[in-house]
Design a protein that fits this description.
With 229 residues, this protein is mainly alpha-helical. Helices cover 62% and strands 0% of the residues.
Length: 229
């Protein structure tokens, strides 16, 4: 089991692999943070759009949506048909049309049109769960939190940092085991690592520099290599 002492070197090694990857793309939320200068409202809406959607489609839909609707007030008054037309590149666009309009209305009604910066308040917004709330804290407010998506859940378990069944359990364990100084960078690094190297199917273990620290490599990959030798 990886402990608090070795997560720093692991993250630095992952960061180096990500930088040197032949596909060094930014994640949709990191890209949105740069483009929108960390605007919490746009991070919130972009994160809702990103649910069960590839980064490329999320970026395209966010760009189209924010060209026309720049504030919670504008989006809350939007006609659903207009929003749907703009975000049609994402999955479940009809549901997400309702979600982003409802979230905008909630911001106006309960928070004066300002995105709250605490977990409890964020969780009262329609379509916002812990992952989305943590994304808003990290990418919208630069506040230390650990958003756990499928990449973070998978990689944390493969490395042996955690041994969990659900993203919710993974978040709880990572909060206990990862020093807070690493929280801001963890999601972006693990997502990019999961997109380029530690893929869900066919992970590129032969190109990975942290196999010595990886439980999955020791227990699954290495025995297969030895058996076939």
């Amino acid at each position: 089991m990886a402990d608090r002492r070795d997560i720093g070197p692991t993250l630095r090694a992952i960061a180096k692999m990500v930088r040197e990857s032949k596909d060094p793309r930014a994640t949709a939320l990191a890209e949105l943070k740069d483009v929108e200068e960390g605007n919490p409202f746009r991070i919130l809406i972009g994160t809702i759009l990103s649910q069960r959607t590839r980064d490329e489609q999320t970026s395209k839909a966010s760009e189209m949506l924010f060209r026309k609707f720049k504030t919670p007030q504008q989006l809350a008054r939007a006609k659903p048909s207009e929003v749907t037309k703009l975000i049609k590149s994402v999955g479940f666009y009809n549901m997400k049309t309702k979600a982003v309009i409802a979230a905008s209305k909630k911001l106006i009604e309960d928070f004066g049109g300002v995105v709250p910066s605490d977990m409890d308040s964020l969780l009262t917004i329609p379509s916002v769960g812990r992952k989305t709330a943590n994304c808003v804290l990290v990418y919208g407010f630069d506040m230390p939190a650990i958003p756990v998506d499928t990449h973070v859940h998978r990689i944390s378990n493969r490395l042996g940092i955690v041994n969990t069944k659900t993203p919710e359990e993974t978040e709880k364990e990572l909060v206990k085991k990862v020093p807070k100084r690493y929280w801001l960078e963890l999601n972006d690094l693990f997502v990019r690592f999961g997109q380029t190297t530690c893929k869900p199917i066919g992970p590129k273990c032969g190109q990975c520099t942290i196999t010595a620290r990886c439980k999955y490599y020791r227990e699954v990959v290495k025995p297969k290599l030895l058996a076939s030798a």
